[in-house]
Design brief:
single chain; alpha+beta; five-stranded mixed sheet; three-stranded antiparallel sheet; 20 helices; about 55% helix; globular; oxidoreductase activity, acting on paired donors, with incorporation or reduction of molecular oxygen; metal-binding
Length: about 500
């Protein structure tokens, strides 16, 4: 009996496979024109990607080395085409024919719902509401909070034992969390300090995204039975409860506050905007709140920590940035948005950090109408999942000399002119680019200014062969370790 059932199942599978090939003839014909590894029936190339998340980037790099700037691979019946040509990347990300997230973003939905980060029918109207809290006008209103919290954390860091290395991320993420709470979340200082399960949410966010990335990249975890048998379903339920408890507290506090008064439009937080719009259900508000909370405070903390770690290892650049701060901003007092724009040396270190630690290692989009690339030589069929390997693009030796080295001088004006401008896309491009680029840039640079005013950063470890952790974004797997010494008189430069 079992043999008969097995034979019937195999036969049904093969018949379906033949039917699928017949109904996707155009897709298969166009896919055959793109180089790529041989694919197995049903599984496609899924076995190639049976690697640890940290090895995923190396696997993509190796395939590009083998097949060039374009290669195709199959994940089951899903055609994926990875594209590393800067000109085509810009054209695709800004095209109205490629205006939806790819299928891997569906793995975000159980945790974050369908919306701004995961895509779906609501991403555009939700993003339109949230954008107003991320624009330059709003950010300029947020700078007093950035300054206050950045100075506070700089004082904490300056009191560290100079002989003991530590992961500066843990201090920085405390600062970015408070800044996000008091700006985008719309909370008071007092409310932002006693939110339900906040410390747990902050400390385990990276673990949550690592779980999502694991489900995205390990095909066997996409089988529900296996996912639950291995205990990932239990973890998912834990994170869903954590998310609900944390965001429910934020939303309830803002609903209560809005019943008493409406904040200034110019500096209104995203939670207030979602509530007042009347366009989102309470569940949607909570999930979008979590999305924008984590993508704002955690991403900003990673990049700020990377900048500080690199400055610790590059004393000449630290000296340049520090004295630029003294000359253009001063040894004390708040730093303004206009002053931040003048800090060119800081901007170069900031950009090199964005190059090295990509906010998004890989992004995926779905082709909704046929579109050509490679100067017309390749036609992408409808339904193709585009893979844009930003991490690999930012380390392509055709555009970046010694790409594994940390070299802020890459962004000197004379060096920028020599490089294809599309080879550096840290915030992505087009209508689905990074929503918080203005906000994050101002927050990160403000933190660096205050930390350098109070401390001299010193290295702890080496920049050679930094191990990366990939969990949607790229982070330093071993932590952002430094040592610090308080500055003599705090404003006198190096001792």
């Amino acid at each position: 009996m079992w043999l008969t059932v097995s034979l019937l199942a195999i036969t049904a599978g093969l018949l379906y496979w033949q039917y699928w090939k017949w109904t996707h003839k155009r897709l298969l014909e166009l896919a055959a024109l793109v180089p790529g590894p041989p694919a197995l029936p049903i599984l496609g190339n899924a076995l190639i990607f049976m690697v640890n998340p940290g090895e995923m980037l190396e696997k993509i790099s190796g395939l590009h080395d083998t097949y060039g700037q374009y290669f195709r691979f199959w994940l089951g019946p899903d055609l994926n085409i990875s594209i590393k040509n800067p000109k085509d990347i810009r054209a695709l990300l800004t095209s109205n024919k490629v205006n939806q997230k790819g299928p891997v973003y569906n793995f975000l939905i159980p945790f974050l719902g369908a919306g701004i980060l995961s895509g779906g029918p609501t991403w555009r109207p939700h993003r339109k509401i949230a954008t107003q809290s991320y624009n330059k006008k709003s950010v300029s209103h947020f700078t007093p909070i950035f300054n206050r919290e950045a100075e506070q954390i700089a004082r904490v860091i300056s009191n560290r034992d100079p002989n003991v290395k530590f992961d500066i991320y843990k201090d920085v993420v405390a600062c970015t969390t408070q800044c996000v709470n008091q700006t985008l979340m719309g909370l008071s200082k007092e409310d932002s300090q006693d939110l339900s399960r906040m410390e747990e949410m902050v400390s385990r966010t990276r673990e949550m995204y690592a779980l999502i990335f694991k489900a995205m990249t390990k095909w066997w975890l996409q089988i529900p039975l296996i996912y639950w048998m291995l205990g990932y379903g239990k973890k998912q339920n834990y994170f869903r409860k954590l998310v609900d408890d944390f965001t429910s507290d934020i939303v309830k506090r803002r609903q209560k506050a809005l019943a008493e008064a409406t904040p200034n439009e110019d500096c209104m937080g995203i939670v207030d905007r979602f509530i007042l719009s009347g366009d989102l259900t309470e569940e949607e508000i909570k999930l979008e709140t979590l999305t924008l909370f984590t993508t704002s405070q955690e991403a900003a903390a990673k990049i700020a920590s990377g900048v500080l770690m690199f400055l610790a290892h590059l004393p000449d650049w630290q000296n340049k940035v520090y004295h630029e701060i003294l000359d253009l901003v001063g040894p004390s007092g708040p730093v303004t948005s206009e002053q931040l724009k003048q800090l060119q040396y800081l901007d170069m270190v900031f950009k090199e950090t964005l190059r090295y630690f990509s906010i998004a290692a890989l992004i995926q989009r779905t082709v909704e109408e046929e579109i050509t690339i490679d100067e017309g030589r390749i036609t992408l069929p409808v339904g193709t999942s585009l893979v844009i390997p930003i991490h690999q693009l930012h380390r392509d030796p055709r555009y970046w000399e010694d790409p594994l080295k940390v070299m802020p001088e890459r962004f000197l004006p004379e060096n920028v002119k020599k490089r294809d401008p599309n080879a550096f896309v840290p915030f992505s491009l087009g209508p689905m680019d990074c929503l918080g680029r203005v906000y994050a840039t101002a927050l990160i640079k403000t933190i660096v200014v205050w930390v350098l005013r109070y401390t001299r950063l010193e290295p702890a470890g080496s920049l050679d062969n930094i191990k990366l952790q990939v969990a949607i974004s790229v982070a330093c797997a071993g932590g952002y370790n430094v040592r610090v010494r308080p500055r003599n008189g705090r404003i006198n430069g190096y001792a």
